[in-house]
Write a structure and sequence with these properties.
globular, alpha+beta, 2 helices, single chain
Length: about 90
């Protein structure tokens, strides 16, 4: 599974994109399960954006999920942090 995270917003208003391919990783199955759990709740739906909060576009192969702080679940936060950290 290819997981791509694009983070926008924040105090500086910058953008960061990172991708991670799970098939070549030892923790790939765990990341795929985390991605399934994270995509169950669309954290941006009907929510008012927070000033200087981060917004995320998370692409899970062909599925696109829109998320935003501070409305992330723990699964969503863990997935986003893993992808952004692995690509650094």
């Amino acid at each position: 599974m290819l997981i791509t995270v694009t983070r926008t917003g924040g105090f500086a208003g910058g953008e960061r994109t990172a991708s991670l391919e799970t098939t070549c990783r030892a923790d790939g199955p765990a990341l795929e399960r985390l991605a399934e759990l994270a995509s169950d709740d669309d954290g941006a739906a009907g929510r008012t954006p927070v000033p200087d909060g981060f917004r995320y576009l998370v692409r899970l192969d062909d599925k696109l999920v829109r998320l935003q702080d501070p409305y992330l679940t723990e699964d969503q936060r863990q997935l986003i942090d893993t992808v952004l950290t692995a690509a650094a």
